[in-house]
Amino acid sequence: MIQTINxxxxxxxxxxxxxxxxxxxxxxxxxxxxxxxxxxENLSYISVNGYLEEAINVDFTNGHALNISKYLIQNLWSxxxxxxxxxxxxxxxxxxPHDAILWATRNGYRIIWQKPDRFHFIGIVDHSNILSILILxxxxxxxxxxxxxxxxxxxxxxxxxLTIKTKTHDKVNYEKIIRTLPDADLVIYxxxxxxxxxxxxxxxxxxxxxxxxxxIKYLKNTENWVxxxxxxxxxxxxxxxxxxxxxxxxxxxxxxxxxxxxxxxARRPRKILITGMAGAIGNKFKVGSFITPAFWVNAGSVSxxxxxxxxxxxxxxxxxxxxxxxxxETEKWIKEHxxxxxxxxxxxxxxxxLKHSGLEAYLAYVISDQIGIKNADLTNWNNEQRRENLTKRxxxxxxxxxxxxxxxxxxxxxxxxxxxxxxx
Length: 424
Prior knowledge:
39% helix, twelve-stranded mixed sheet, alpha/beta, 14 helices
């Protein structure tokens, strides 16, 4: 009788234990699901499937102003065709690398290769070994458009495309950094590493103690610094012996220029010198020459750029129009835009921010290519020719603004990264 009661009680206890274990496991599983959901909410991602309308409208099967195969190698990698055509899906994101890799692994992907140049491409496969390509360093509208057109041009199809963006963007980062900087007597926008490298080369050895050693190491070796520092988007802050402050700011792409210049204009620098490259439609301007546009097309109307001041020996000529990316420049596009003279991706944003600012602003474009004419571009110049062409003229421009880079009298040099991950 006693043994029977004990066995019954033991069976009862086993059943109860099993029930509690199952409840505990289910509770743990429930907590894991809730945590995963909370993590996703905290990261605040917005996912969008498909292509931008402007990306779909570009026809790569007919004539194009660009040498497409050359452009793809410059912006992807040398043997891009195999991996790009194997991929079943492309995922573009502005997440930081750590967060992007975390997202990929949580969604069941495994990393099989990485190509970190320009945009950062990561090959990922799912449990069925189906290849997707994760693309980092996504910026604003023009950045997304360029990525989508690179994908379409490289594959000559419209593979699945997913965009994952965080709800915050680099505008916040620009504001955070720029509002902490000392007031600027001069802001130089564009070619930051080239200009800083030239300043260091012209700086007397006794003043180099004011320059961080790693900058001297990288910037004096021009073949070395191009790949490294361009990925961190430096903003240099120089202080001279005459107590003047100079900001030298890296160029950014497309819509990011709007965010950046909102922050710069808010700080009211005394002078701004804007440098960059522009394409010339047809053979109106020589490759490598310097131009300040006379007119600007905005919202369908043409305005004189009377808020942009002229520089010595730089012709003020031509009509400027903003373009979303050179990848839209098909032969059909050239015919439709033959009345315009100069194009680039971010200049329109900058001009708009400066229009009512009342700031003393100067603009000098280097002609990068003659759109629609084969092989008429700066890629035919070697790096030394390009740097020499640029630095010689920039020295002259700065001298006309009262700054001689051969005798600035450096007293401090600081570097800030204005991009979260050095995007392109």
